[in-house]
Amino acid sequence: MKFVAVIRQVPDGESRLKIQGGRVDLSGATLILDQMDEYGVEEALRLKEKHGGEAVVVGFGPERTEEAIRTALAMGMDRGVHVVFEGYADPVTVAEALAPVLKEEAPTLVLTGGQQADWDSQALGAALAEALGVPVVAWTTALELEGETARAKHDLDEGAEWVRVRLPAVFTTQQGLNEPRYPTLPGIMKAKKKEIRKVAF
């Protein structure tokens, strides 16, 4: 089995951002792994620990995104893939860039944050599922694998429901699904030696 967490690097919410020429200047900002994506990384690790297989982190963004990928590797992910892109890309463009990589990886499932902190967008999970031609479950709060299917609990406008989908599928993650672990010192040291494959877009 293979569990893939898709991640992005975003400005820390506590950072002071500057506007230069009508654009946000990130040169002095503290950049972190998107906190919503951390739930996807943690869930991939838990699924691997329970079912075996491999946990892979796939990051999208400029060269500096490698820092966020290394954070996920320090948490315990086995290896990383970095789709390198300099500049702004909307969720559909990100999904189109990631689709060939994800198809090549052929994961059992894909996890990504339910909402991107910098875009304030909830579209990436659905765009990924559309690009891959697989089902999507948004705002997942519980996830169980059962053979070639998964049972997932997800939030609705009023309440929640359990659904069953055939794998492979995409699941968007949120607070309540799990409690992400912190990277340990041994994990940080191991992450420095783990593979990150670069793919240009």
From TrEMBL:
Gene Ontology MF terms in the entry: electron transfer activity
CDD domains: ETF_beta (cd01714)
Gene3D superfamilies found in the cross-reference section: HUPs
InterPro entries: ETF_a/b_N, ETF_b, ETF_beta_N, Rossmann-like_a/b/a_fold
Transport keyword on record: yes
All copies of domain Electron transfer flavoprotein alpha/beta-subunit N-terminal, residue ranges: 21-200
Domain of life of the organism encoding this protein: Bacteria
Transport as UniProt keyword: yes
Pfam families linked to this entry: ETF (PF01012)
UniProt keyword annotations, A-Z: Electron transport, Transport
Family note: Belongs to the ETF beta-subunit/FixA family.
Name this protein carries in UniProt: Electron transfer flavoprotein subunit beta
Organism: Thermus caliditerrae
